[in-house]
């Protein structure tokens, strides 16, 4: 009976950690979108200060976020997703990247203008 109770307590702790992780990810993604929005608005208006402000906020956020994804989320996903699903996801990522190539070039051009 004691082992059953210990298992339940451990299960609740894992559930709490997983829920907290998901909530943290949602918050970080929202903050990231806000920083990107600030950068995009700066690019559209030629406002270098807002671009830099958004970029600095994004860099600070993304460093910790990427660490968690690389060391927690992706290893978990590798243990769950089939090779077929991973291949399908990679194809979709490439498609999205290709569709946004013009945006990428626009931002690269703008960043190059910051040196001027």
Question: Can you give a write-up of this model?
Answer:
The protein is 91% helix and 0% strand. The chain has 116 residues and is mostly helical. The chain folds into two domains: 2-80; 82-116.
Give me the strand/helix succession: HHHH
Main sheet properties = none
Radius of gyration from CA coordinates: 20 Å
Q: How many distinct beta strands? A: 0
Strand content: under 5%
Proportion of residues in helical segments = over 70%
Indicate the low-confidence ranges by residue numbers. none
Described by the principal axes of the CA atoms, the overall outline is globular
Mean pLDDT over all positions: 81
* Coarse structural class: mainly alpha
By DSSP (H or I, 4+ residues per run), the number of helices equals 4
How many structural domains?
A: 2
From the N-terminal CA to the C-terminal CA, the straight-line distance is: 72 Å
Topology record:
Layout: H1 2-45, H2 48-78, H3 83-99, H4 101-113
List key phrases describing it.
mainly alpha; single chain; 2 domains; 116 residues
Summarize the structure.
With 116 residues, the chain is mainly α.
């Amino acid at each position: 009976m004691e082992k059953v109770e210990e298992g339940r307590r451990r299960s609740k702790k894992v559930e709490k950690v997983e829920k907290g992780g998901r909530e943290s990810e949602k918050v970080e993604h929202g903050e990231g979108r806000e920083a990107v929005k600030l950068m995009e608005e700066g690019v559209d208006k030629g406002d270098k200060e807002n671009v830099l402000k958004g970029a600095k906020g994004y860099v600070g956020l993304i460093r910790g976020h990427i660490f968690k994804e690389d060391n927690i989320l992706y290893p978990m996903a590798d243990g769950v997703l089939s090779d077929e699903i991973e291949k399908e996801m990679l194809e979709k990522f490439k498609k999205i990247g290709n569709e946004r190539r013009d945006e990428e070039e626009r931002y690269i051009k703008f960043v190059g203008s910051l040196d001027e």
